[in-house]
Amino acid sequence: MKIREVTLSTTPTPEAIADLRLGDIVYLDGLIYTAREGVYMRALEDKANIPMELPSQSAANFHCSPAAVIREDGSFDLGAVTATASFRFAKWLPEWMAKTGARLIIGKGGMSSKDYKDYFVPNGAVYLSTVGYGTGALLGRGVETVEAVHWHEELGIAQAMWVIRARRMGPFIVASNLDGDCLFERENAKIVQNLDRVYEGTRPAVLKRYGETDDRSDEVIG
Amino acid sequence: MISIDLIQKTAETLMDKAAIEIPQDYLDGLRAAAATEDGDLSSFVLQAMLENYEAAKEDRRAMCGDTGVPRWFVKMGNDARIEGGPIALEAALRRATANATTGVPLRPNRVHPLWRTDHNNNVGIGAPEIEYGFEPEGEWIDLITVHKGGLFGTDYRMLFPSDGIQGIKRFYLDSLVAFGKRGLACQPAIIGIGLGGSKDTCMVLGKRASVLRTVGSRNSDPKIAAMEDEFKELGNSIGMGAMGFVGKNMVIDCNIEVGYCHTGGMQMSVHAFCLSSRRAVARIFPDGRVEHRTDPDWFTDYQRRETIDWEPAREAAE
Questions:
Q1: Which of A35, A116, B130, B276 lies at a CB distance of 3.0 to 4.6 Å from A180, suitable for a disulfide?
Q2: How many CB pairs (< 8 A) connect A and B?
Q3: Parent domain of A197
Q4: CA trace torsion A4, A5, A8, A13 (10° rounding)
Q5: CATH number for the domain that contains residue A156
Q6: Residue in chain A nearest B237 by alpha carbon
Q7: Is A49 exposed, middle or buried (0-12, 13-18, 19+ CB in 10 A)?
């Protein structure tokens, strides 16, 4: 398979999203904001006003906390940027996407195909995975400026809402499409066919764990 | 006497090097993996990582945005004396951790487990961890910093003698497959396995096997060394590569460390030191010399000793 490279706006058209294929490599241009558990809880549970115009300014939600510092003069020093595992945020994402019109969810490890079919596809959204993990220095190079940091006093630097202007920021990998297919599950399905052979001769532990499974198509997420 | 200012200054340099510079042994291992990888996506990922290491060094920026949880391993020769004593030493390492967090910068990862309080400097209750080891001779102190990622790829299980080597293999494969899917373990990794000890020390052994030994090192027990080779190959035969994509490189190396355990048990832990295997080491001498390296050289014969007294030391005294 030849790997295809795509440049995408962070306020993408429906057509541009529909054109993406699993495994495409994506580079992003435009505003991206970080939001993870801290931002979701503050915006959705505490009902704080989101300090951006969404999705007109950005439809790209990055599950990320950068390696960054706010200097005493209020300016920013942002070094490396990588994602955190997204499956932990499934609890908040449907409401977040409905509220903000996010079309690109960027993170680590993707979500399940059930998540994609349930609320990504109806919202016209896809999942972009960071690469590695993680290519923090390469992604850091793609940050042209830090436009703002919201809620850092309430949430701390790691959980704050960082608004960054990306210029050819990447690489990212398309991990879901508008059919709700999941790149990682596609790969898992190929790998699981080999596992009986690899496990051959090994023995299950004499002391079981409560709730333990031997179904190797299972995943630890979800 | 070793100067406390020199300790702090060296510790700050180590924090910077660990976050930015991939250790040569891991880099060599990953290059070898990239040369053999034929999965199209996993091959792309490894090439991107190799470019990323270069970008980090060129820009002097952290190689990964998650800069892990900084911790310290301190080893002292038996004759080492530190200006201000151990209290001053710990203060210097905490200051260096905080200064480097804003200086590099690192991500301020450390928060209170319940209240999520973030001091924005990677310092707090029990953070950074500082662990100690000693060697029979020398006036030097070794400072080792490791910034391991903290969330996935590590597991513990109480096995028993009746589980045998096939039970060990099963838990090893379970850990790799479970956390390798979707690349949660950020593989290919240096896999550390701890066998024996107690539950807590088993975790310590496995963690140290992954972070304090280099790619290509082998346990001094030839039978354990053979297991390390076998387990590396076993992990790489799963058919899974970087990010959980189809591929053949999951394990850059497998290091096993053991400790004597309860006669009825066979504790086992598995740890994964990720694509950003952050470690840096320096030896500081009383005359002010500082020697930087990336091999912690932690597991000496003395650390793995089995006897009551340290035999070579006794012989030397006689």
A1: A116
A2: 211
A3: 185-219
A4: -20
A5: 3.20.130.10
A6: A198
A7: exposed
